[in-house]
Amino acid sequence: MTTEQQNADTYAELTRTLKNIELALMATAAANPPNWKRPLSAYKNEWVKAIGAYEVSKDQHGPTVIFWMGHHYTRRCGSNSKYGAAIWFSRATGKGEDGETAYARLITFEDGAAPSAEPLPAYVVEKLG
Fold first, then answer.
1. Are 114 and 92 in contact (CB under 8 A)?
2. Angle at Cα 33 formed by Cα 29 and Cα 34, nearest 5°?
3. What are phi and psi of 42, to 5 degrees?
4. Which residues have a Cβ under 8 Å from the Cβ of 111 and sit 6 or more positions away?
5. What tens digit of pLDDT does each residue of 37-62 get?
6. Where are the beta strands (DSSP E) in 1-129?
7. Confidence of residue 105 (pLDDT cuts 50, 70, 90)
């Protein structure tokens, strides 16, 4: 075997190894979405392509379903304003220990407003002494 053939074989083996590493990293990322945090104002920008996702459907406000690392993520929005305005994309991952559906978040857009502290209940105040 010539040096040129050995170099070609080594290059091919390195390429296969790097491809396997890439696939393993993609599988890990798909199983553990990052829940990126962005300001609410960034929701209207071209963020879908920036995170390597594809827009599946949209409405007049922006994307409603996106596809990332082999999974579909649906737009969600809280129904109360206790924690401020927020939009997030999540997918169901199965049932939790309590029997409730568990979700994984891909990205969250928040207005950055800190929630107000809740008053302490009397029994807690009593325990404080």
1. no
2. 100
3. -75, -10
4. 39, 40, 84, 85, 86
5. 999 989 988 899 999 999 999 999 99
6. 36-39, 54-59, 62-68, 71-77, 86-95, 101-110
7. very high
- Which SS3 state, helix, strand or coil, does residue 66 take? strand
Token pair belonging to 10: 């080594």
Six token digits for residue 98? 């309590």
Cβ atoms < 10 Å from Cβ of 73: 24
- Structure tokens of 100? 């409730």
Task: Give the list of residues 6+ apart from residue 84 with CB closer than 8 angstroms, or none.
Answer: 110, 111, 112, 113, 114, 115
